[in-house]
C-alpha cells in the first residue's frame, strides 16, 4: 500500500483506493469498485500466496466476494478478464493524468508495447500489430475497434462506446433484466435459474426509464457529504498528530527540568523516558496515519463512485443511469455504515508526564511514567441521515399475539431482541412476555409492582422500570427463559428508561415533592450522577430514548404534548410541540437516529430528524390509539401496540 498525506484529498480527480494515486488502467470488479491494474494484481497475488488455489477474493473496499471466472487459472488471466472502466479512464485523461496503456495481448506474452486501439467487444487495449491481427481473424473481424485516444478524449465518448454490464454470476452474459421482487439486476441465465417464479421481471431495454426513480443527483450530494465527513476525520487525526508532537516537546522539557533537580540520578531516567516517549509518540502517530490512509482509500472510492455516477447521469442512457445508480445506491449504504463505525472509534490521544510525588524508588530510577489517554469525541456524523430524505412507510401488517392467558391486557411498551424476538410489557397484569419471531409467547414473568418501560441492557438482558416502587428490575432472557438477575432502588419514581452505557441508566418521571418532571442519569447502584428538571408539573407517563452514540436524550411526556431533546450533560437542544401531536407517548429511533414519537390522542406517528426537523407525519393504517413503539433493525420496521388492547402488534415496514 502506498502512503500519502491527507492533502492528496484536495485533488478531485479519480484515484485508486489502494495506492491513492492516479489510475493507471482502471480495472473494475463486479461490485463496480475500480483499482489500478498493477494494484489489483498485487492484491490478488498477495491473497493467492496464502492459499494453494485461490478462486475468490474480497473487494478491498466493500469486502464483496469476487469469484474467479471459469476456466481461468492464472492471476494474469484473471486480471485481463476484469473490464477496464472506460469512464474513469476518460476522466483521468481529461484531467491530464499520464495514464500508460500497454497492449494487453502483448503484455500476456511478457512483451511491452503501447496501445493505440481498443476493442469495444473484447474490452481490450491493443497495439497496431495486434489490432491488424484482430481485424483479420474470423472470430473477431466484426468487432468494433476504436482509437484509444478518441475513447479517452471525453466521458461522452467513453459512454458512447461502453459495452453492456456483465453479470457477476455468469461469465459472458450481459445484464438485461431487473427483478423487482428481489431488487436485483440479472442476466438471461439468472432469470431462468433464480427468478422463474418472480412476478415482476422487467426488460431493462424498455423499462429502465421507469425504474430510474432515484435521482442520481441526490446520491451524488450524499457521496459529497460522506467525503466531507471523511476529510473532517482526517483533519482531526492530523491535528492530533500535531498536538502529540507539541505534547512530546512539553514532556521532554519536563524531563529536563526534573533532571536539574535530581542531577546524576536522572541521567538514566532521561534516556529511558525519552526512548519510551518516542516509541509511544511514533506508535500513536503511525496509528493515526494508518487510520488516515484507510479513510483516504474510502474517500477515493466514494469519489470514484460519484465521478462515474455524475458522468453517467449527464451523458448516459437510461439503462446506464439505472444500473449505475442502483449499484451506487447500495454502495452508499455500505459507505455510510463503514463510516459510522469508524467515527464511533475516533479518539483523541494525549501524552503527559505523570510524576510519582512520593518518589519511593528514587535510586531505582522510577521517577515518573508516560501516560496516554484516549478521549472519544462526539462527532456529528448523523447529520448525513442516509440520503437526507424521509423514509417511506409501506403496507401495515397486523400480527396477533398468541399464547397469553390473561382476559385483558395492556401492552404499555415493547422492545426487539436478537433473532427478531419481541418482549412486551403488560402493566394491567404486571407481567412481561417473551415472544418468538412469529409473536408466539415462549416465556413470561410476573412483577411485584406495576411495570412501565423496557429497554435492552445487552444481548441477553433487559431492564424494566417499576413505576410504583421506585425500582428498576434487570431480567435475563437467556435460553428463551425470563429470569430476574438484580434490582436497584431509585430516589424518585421512574417511568421512562434507557441504557446509556455500562453501569449507566437514564430515567424520567415525576418529582411530586417539587411538582416537576425530571430526568436523571443513575449508576448501577441507583445513585444519581446527574439530575435535571424540564417541566413545571409533575406527570408520570413518559418515555425515553437515546441515540446510538448515547449523546442525546429524547423524552416524550404525555401531558406536555411535546418531545424534548437534551444532550447527555443536560442542555436543552430543542422542543418539538406541534398542534397535531396530542398525547405524546411511545418513542423510538431507527438506525439513522431518526426519531419516531406516537401521538396517542392525535392517532399519528411523527418522524423527525435527529435535530428535530419534521420529516413526515403518518396517519393512515395506524391502530386507533397507538401506545408503544419500537424499531426492529434487522427487518427495518416499526412495531406498535394500541389501546384498547386487542393482543395485536402492528408492523410498519420502512424503506
From TrEMBL:
This is Uncharacterized protein. Residues 101-148 form the B box-type domain. SMART domains: RING. PANTHER family: BONUS, ISOFORM C-RELATED, MEIOTIC P26, ISOFORM F. One of its GO terms (molecular function) is zinc ion binding. It comes from the Eukaryota. SUPFAM superfamilies: B-box zinc-binding domain (SSF57845), NHL repeat (SSF101898), RING/U-box (SSF57850). CDD domains: Bbox1. Keywords: Coiled coil, Metal-binding, Phosphoprotein, Zinc, Zinc-finger. Residues 241-275 form a coiled coil. Residues 16-63 form the RING-type domain.
